[in-house]
Amino acid sequence: MVTRLMKKFYILIIFAFLYAPIFVLIVFSFNNSKSRGNWNGFTLKWYMELLRDRQILSALYYTVIIAIISSLIATIIGTMAAIGIHNMSKWKQSLIMNITYLPVLNPDIVTGISLMILFIFMKMQLGFFSMLLAHITFNIPYVILSVMPKLKQLNKHLYEAALDLGATPWYAFKRVIIPEIMPGIITGALLAFTLSLDDFVISFFTTGSGVSNLSITIYSMARRGINPEINALSSLMFISVLSLLIIINKRMSKDNSVKENA
Amino acid sequence: MKKIFKLLGFVVLIVSTAVIFTGCAGEKQITLKVYNWGDYIDESVIDSFEKEYNIKVIYDTFATNEDMYVKLKAGGDSYDVAFPSDYMIQRMIKEDMIQKIDMNNIPNYRYIDDRFKNLAYDPNNEYSVPYMWGTVGIIYNKTMVDDVVDSWDILWNEKYAKKILMMNSQRDSIGITLKKLGYSLNTKNINELEEAKNELIKQKPLVLAYVGDEVKDKMVAGEAAMAVVYSGDAVFMKRENPDLEYVIPKEGSNLWFDAMVIPKASQHKKEAELFINYMCDPEIAFKNADYIGYSTPHTEAKKMLDPDLINDKTAYPEDEDLDHCQVFEDLADSLKDYDRIWTEVKAN
Amino acid sequence: MKQRWIAYPYIVWMVIFILVPLLLVVFYSVTTVTDEGIQFSLEHFKRFLEPVYLIVLLRSIYLAFISTVICLVLGYPMAMILASKDISKKQFIVLLFILPMWMNFLLRTYAWMTLLENSGLINTFLSFIGLPNLNLLYNHQAVVLGMVYNFLPFMVLPIYSVLSKIDKSIIEAAQDLGANNFIVFRRIIFPLSLPGVMSGITMVFMPSVTTFVISRLLGGGQYTLIGNLIEQQFLYVGDWNFGSALSVILIIIILLSMGVMSKYDKEHEGGGLW
Question: Chain C within 8 Å of B335 (Cβ-Cβ)?
Fold first, then answer.
């Protein structure tokens, strides 16, 4: 009983740590002052201005689209890669994994500029597509790093047992391997999505043609000071995603309890 | 769970097809690509320009001159109008990255204050049209500082240890140190630079932090007694906290300009000049100056501003205050020395 | 599953988008532009050997190391708790855990400054209840805090995904054989979770070495880290050669240290260098 309480308490502390800045952000989105140094009264004006600001809204659109598409593609390629690499000889594995570490290891500026040079060399017009390619590139290693441990954890004989029992390789793959490594795949997709949402440097150097993402818009305000419309936007994003999660969660537990009672 | 994935995948498919299609449609209209600092324009101005001239504007933003420089130099994208700062314009002229502007197409240029023409970075006014300007100076909290503030020396005063904020920018911080020592802030003389380095290292224990734009919040909140800031930010800070005062030290300081240029790669010179001329229209220049809050070089726009602002020495200093102020020049190879010095100061 | 060919799409991708840019960086690092044109030279690597740059590198590695250790110490229990059967709605909590990361990093760091500064929320609260103010900002601690804050989910999630599927019957068997909780953890749970731990360490240590925004904002720009230095070379100085040389040095050092670490990982669980 005590351990259960202690566990919940620990989670609560960690969550307080994680959410403290978010709370501050939301509070200041109602501050009637551009400065975070003083509180000048409650206002909704930043929210109003936000809805009229087409630059920010366009950036938001591209941010979400690129995050979703790049994490999906990276998850697919990364999962396939992890499975294939897992079956390679030790030295080949080491070689490929070390090359895979490079986008994780390199400072963003190096990855961003080198990709930019590559794209220009390939005569590619910088824009949506180039930014997407760049995002997929730095997302894949995280997917691989998330799926690999699950593969190592996998019981090698499970697959063979399934084959022995008469399953086709594809069936065994779909019904045995994939469910076992699914937590890793989901982790990889989540991490990729998270990284993609927040990337500035690589996106900045690999985009163009008016395609901008939220991070670029926000970092570009560095000299002038962050416009509180951004706070308002972040608060809205946060509340909407949180609500979405709560709704999905309620629906899933409803489904589960229906299944149990059936 | 599976259903949700399927739905998501479907939505993504639809949206991405939509994106690809909108990218291909509408090629009849001329598009103008503008590259500016973040939050550095009144956005209604873009809309009114588009309506008046039936030209679509694609507006991208950058965070620093150097970011913009790398993008333009690499050439992956062609911008028609860009807003670099003084020293960057000088470098771009040197490296043949911008084209000459036909000033006959910019009749509104006559509204630009003559003080801001024929500057060192563009002596014949062939390449740029000024947009905003300002100075660098010391902002201090009157309730926390009892000495007279008129010299850069105050930033080295031990009485204010850990209450001093410096700019986290190589050229600005090394520059003001050079000014304090009586040298030019564009010097390439290695001995003068080493002296500046030693001054900065001496100062380091007194510095609370080397900051960027967060300096505004810090000073308004009273976290520090004094800071090195841009004049435009100082105007904002004084409004938020009346205890703050701004001064340009007597040794002189930096005078900065952001100006509009037309990159070489631009294919729409006519439209770019149209845009630049539009930005110099009194009404439009006023809107921008009013929104941004920095000092405008536009004589007519200045007249339309709040009288308190026009008379504020912070935003519009007297000529004598600007006597010892210098504009940054491109340092070319000396940048390496500045960088090494800055790293040595920080690494201690 | 012995197929290797399904990795080939990635291999192709990897060659184009990771290897080729890497070759570019290496090329820049070993060449220099002189009046006679482009020549091979190791001068940029020699330049790195000046003490000021070595200090920068060591400090970056030191801070990254501390942050990784703290992430591990804080994150492992978190992953264990999440995976244990006492907690319901795991998926939901995992998503809640990563949700803050979807807010822009710069904004969250600014919010931390509002919390940590002398007139900030934490100190205001402390004075309110009569405790003295703490110096929470512009020091090493603040930078480590920022790094841990930013990278914690990258440590927790891989460990959690492995822990969640540890065969409970093994644990039960050990307990039947008389092992107490501590031995169960040390001899069974921890070793089995090692692949996840290695991934977590990789995903935290490597980016923290090259991070520069956190040290700039929370450290008050007081010190240059290797990430700042490299950024300065590419943007402010325009010396891509030196910047590339720094990157190459960094790559070699980090991959070597990861390799040394994986020697402890005898069964080759993590996919390191040797």
Answer: yes
